[in-house]
Amino acid sequence: MCGVIGILGSYPLRMSRELLLLLAHRGQDAAGLLWIEGDRAIDGKSIGSPSLIRLPDTSSNQILGSTRYPTSGKRVASEEDLNTFVGPFKVNAITLTHNGNITNMASVSEKQFDCDGEFLAERLSFHLENNSGDLPEAFRKLEAEVDGSYSLAGFYNGLLFAYRDSHGFKPLVFGRSSERTIVASESTVLDMGGVPLERDVYPGELLVFGNGGKMESYSISQNANHSHCFFEYVYFAHPAATIENQLVYDVRFRLGRALAQTFKKLHLDKPDYVVPVPDTSRPAAQAMAETLDVPIREIILKNRYLGRTFIVRTQEERDAMARSKYIYLDGKIRGKNILVVDDSIVRGTTAKMIVADLRKRGAAKVYFAVTCPPQAHPCYYGIDISTDRELIASTSSVNSIAEYIETDALIYQEEHTLENSIGIKDLCLACLDGDYPTEHARSIRKGIQQQGSKPNERDYERDFSQ
Ligand code: AMP
Known about the structure:
By secondary structure, the chain is α+β, with helices and mostly antiparallel strands. 32% of the residues lie in helices and 25% in strands. It contains 16 helices and 23 strands. The strands form six sheets. A seven-stranded antiparallel β-sheet has the order 3-2-4-1-10-9-11. Strands 5-6-7-8-12-13 form a six-stranded antiparallel β-sheet. β5 and β6 (94-102) form a beta hairpin. The model has no long low-confidence stretch (mean pLDDT 93). Bound molecules: adenosine monophosphate. The site of adenosine monophosphate has 16 residues, from α11.
């Protein structure tokens, strides 16, 4: 998961940084902007938030932006890392920003790449050179050789292009006005950038935009079965984003309503409060409270100034950070039956800690509801859960997870209510059911099941395709 932006048409650089901030939730590791000044491509990058990118007080006609979530390469710690791992990337006449995860870099190219954004820019440039500069043809060659997810925005010869892989894993939308065209991972960027949302880029579709809102669409690859990442709706995307014509807030609300129905069937003691784990699960908690006719109380508050707990490496670090991530409204907990709602359980660290913290503060009962079904398989397409060892549900049953987190009842979303709540059919559910939609990912999964993972290595960093 990362965030991408492409703007064609004069726009102030400092305002484009504001647009990028709307995608900060998609990647908090680092951020970058690249713009064209005359015939030069210039970039500005920062570790952490886009707000730290230093920019001149000027405008540009061609701007690309990227927020980075590291699923390929390491976390950014230095200026040198910024240049190596953080987009947008420039290779010859191609500039490009990328959201997704390529799983077969090693089998496509002998050259070693530090990250997949740079790899994509190189391959595209290579195919352009070998196909007389024909962009659609270069994309056909690229689509035929790479495996994984990729939603791209970039510039070639002054034209803005947008491409979404033929599975449509990651979101990509665009909008146009007479002044500018904007391509972005999420529709909120278009709204703030002053252009109406036109539509999603279709899976396998290349769009090429010229000045004055001119647009050409090329069908690069036809794939009858699309595989939109369901976790975008559950966790990644902003609730105000519209993806595939679905408002993410509404999806999360429906997820909560479905969970409430499951909760009712268990005939447990009535909760005194429904409590969201901030921020993602708020719409679901509202729906649960409404459906169960129980008040919602925000007694778990987020420490906004803490960094990311998910991507730290050791369990000790993770536990320490998880402990300081939440602040509790102490006086509201003693003697109460509390129904906690979170979007997902990955390793179980957060859920276990919250249940223990509520009990320590005198909660009578703590139920734990999760808007996502158990994630029992690694993701190779852009969520940083790339090995079984990171997933408690890969080795433990729901009952064992409930015992581990010490809850009075653990209520997971079911797969069919997840699909119904999202409201579209063509979803990638690989981390739930192990059914990987691409060939190379299937070969990685098979290889891992036969040979096991290696410590300190993501599964997709190994090549089992030979
Ligand atoms: P864990 O504590 O390992 O079980 O992780 C679950 C918590 O991490 C939940 O509160 C989620 O909101 C959050 N989460 C789930 N997936 C991700 C992800 N890919 N990146 C960052 N945070 C995540």
